[in-house]
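User: Some background: our group keeps a shared notebook of sequences we're curious about, and every so often someone picks one and asks for a predicted structure to add to the entry. Today it's my turn. The entry only has the sequence so far, pasted here. Could you supply the structure so I can complete it?
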Amino acid sequence: MTRVLFVVSAAKGWTLDDGTVHPTGYWAEELAEPHRIFSEAGWDIDIATPGGVTPTVDELSLGVMGGMPSTRKKIRAYLDSIADRLNHPLRLDEVDEDDYDLVFYPGGHGPMEDLAVDEVSGALLTRRVHADRPLALLCHAPAAILAPREPDGSNPFAGRTMTGLSNVEEHLNTFARKAKWLLQDEMEEVGVDYDKALIPLRSHVVVDGNLHTGQNPQSACELATTIVEALSPTA
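Assistant: Of course. Here's the predicted structure to add to the notebook entry:
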């Protein structure tokens, strides 16, 4: 059976450049929809967070910013159905990613607060990308690639083609104009070959070998479906 590890931010707030803390967490659709698609494929899924802290859903993702009421209702119901696993995640520092066929990072602003500087996550990502084993990051989750560094100071993701939430999309959030940094800028700064859709808020998935990335929440289903197709045995 295919095994998947979800690495989820444990952050409850995102610190802005004026010192205020904006409530955040993981984005509901970005966790729920891939989890559902992988589950329907018959895959076994574990959830881990830094320190084993119960992750927090960003309430904005269950409000009007999360789509149509029927969509939000479906996503909330799915999160409720996996509440036991969400409420009792594994400790990231006690997980061996070699046990998993896929490591998946959902987004939300949470990763910009904790995973972007988390040494355990950084080491996991370094091992994963060096081993060229399936890895996926969605929306803001590529912030996690800012944590790892090679011995020479370079980033192990330098030269890889990836996507993540664009500067244009970030600025659609008025509070994000106080951000200390923007994801697209930082990805480009560490040497990633950043790629984005021509139209903001449209699904956009980038596949570079075993590295899969999605640009925004709208990419959640396409990203997960692409991964299922890539990892499913051929006839």
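Suggested note for the entry: Residues 28-40 form the longest helix (13 residues). The CA atoms of residues 204 and 215 lie 6 Å apart.
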